[in-house]
Amino acid sequence: MPLGSLVVISALVCATSAALTRRAVPCPDGVHSATHPACCALYPIVDHIQQNLFDGGECDDEVHESLRLTFHDAIGFSLSQGPSGGGGADGSIMSFSDTELQFSANGGLDDIVKMQEQCLSECGGNGVVSPGDFIQLAGAVGVSNCPGAPRLKFLLGRPNATAPAPDKLVPAPTDSTDVIFARFADAGFNTDEVVALLASHSIASSKVLNPSMVGAPFDTTPELFDTQFFVEELLRPRGFHGTELQSGQTDSPIEGEMRIMSDSLIARDSRTSCTWQSFINNQARMADAFGQAMAKLAVLGQDTSKMIDCSEVIPQPKSLPVEHSQSVFPPGFSNADVEQACSATPFPKLSTLPGPVTPVPPVPS
């Protein structure tokens, strides 16, 4: 190889290495460090969020709702509609809450928006972070409280929203997969990324879908970011014969558990069923895919060249407890209860938890 080519390759390697290696410097508080001075101001905000929004670092209802808020704010973005199609992850759902919280798809978000507005005011975040920054920061910090979750990225520097997002950009639980996939494609996401984002339902619970099931979790381990959601969604209903209980809700065979129509359809759609099944018993794959999809979601509509990577301020999540490191069937279920949807690969062989079949308790609000 010519010497000139070696020099070019060497220079490229050095440049790439320099780009990937970010040197941290001490912050004025003498405790933390950051790769950019602007990130230092975020540490006390993160501490305030943990103590006052998430009860000292719990994977609780406020975490679930904060993660939901990151999506509902960011998905207000349309490639086909251009500038009139919303500003994406710009905080418009908070800045123009009087408008956007009236959208039917945003039902149940009123409380978490108010809590975050108060937290932003009390933590000294005004002037440091925009509402769009705060929503994504709170979501990433909240997820870090859930064992098994990836450490989400956080970029600082979203400008204030100048207008509310248009209505009808948030997919509804009653939508068909064609409608859902088209909506996500219009925001720049492929079908694999849609499934990856649905890993958020592993720590989700219902707010408004069924008034008789407020707090009903979407799987049996809502306090853990694990793959149980992907297992349990594929269990066929027992005794209910698939009867629709309410618009957007279908029957789960596990008493007390919420199952929504769109999840059920995506889990069984030929375009997504194998990606769905690939997450079962593969925690690392699911967490990595979710982290990458969330990094993309968190900057929809933003100019990242003008933003600062402050990911180091996000706490490192705990690992899953050993007893939850593998996917399992809940008590009373087995492979015979699975509605096999992916024809390309066999369904994983999972063990069944011992014990009686008991209802899943609601997530405390």
UniProtKB/TrEMBL annotation:
Disulfide bonds join C27-C40, C39-C310, C59-C146, C274-C342. Residues 67-346 form the Plant heme peroxidase family profile domain. Binds 2 calcium ions per subunit. It comes from the Eukaryota. Residues 1-18 form the signal peptide. GO terms for molecular function: heme binding; metal ion binding; peroxidase activity. The active site is at H72. The keyword Heme applies. This is Peroxidase.
